[in-house]
Amino acid sequence: MDLLRLVAFDPEDLAVISAHLQDSLLRVGDIAYLPKERRFAIQVRRYDWEAATPQRRLTCMHFEHVTSVRVRGIEQTNKDAVLNLLAIAFEERNAPSGTATLIFAEGGAIQVDLECVEMQMKDTGPVWAAESRPSHEDQPQPAERL
């Protein structure tokens, strides 16, 4: 598969990107809030659900028009801690503004307040074999190496 590049301008577009980012792994140190630029960005190791064999791809994503960011249940001082992104949800407040919530395994979340939805996701190139296919069973799965 070629490098994937997607743009979201509404909640429906964001749902498509969320599906592609499901089960992405990232380090806390790969999260950046740039208030002067009004941007929130992360770099993830995206599980490629469309590949014939289990693989991950390095992918970057960012939101524009960010007014604030809140973090819950994530130890921000441990930059090497690994997070598993489960989904991105959007709750509209006063159209077109709202809050995008990045939902992580084990209860962590990041809420990104937006003036409007403008988000980009782009594969940046490196691809490698994944150790296993992500599972959503009740039992914890072994952590995959980044």
Describe the structure.
With 146 residues, the chain is mostly beta strands. Helices cover 8% and strands 49% of the residues. The protein contains one helix and ten strands. The protein has one helix spanning 11-21, and strands spanning 5-8, 24-27, 31-34, 39-47, 55-63, 66-72, 82-92, 98-104, 109-114, 119-129. The protein has a five-stranded antiparallel sheet with strand order 1-10-5-4-3, covered by helices on one side. It has a five-stranded antiparallel sheet with strand order 2-7-8-9-6. Strand 8 and strand 9 form a beta hairpin. The two termini are 21 Å apart. Pfam families: DUF2948. Residues 125-146 are annotated as: Disordered. Residues 133-146 have a biased composition (Basic and acidic residues).
Distance between the termini: 21 Å
Output the strand order for the largest sheet. Answer: 1-10-5-4-3
> Which word captures the global form?
globular
H and E order: EHEEEEEEEEE
Number of strands: 10
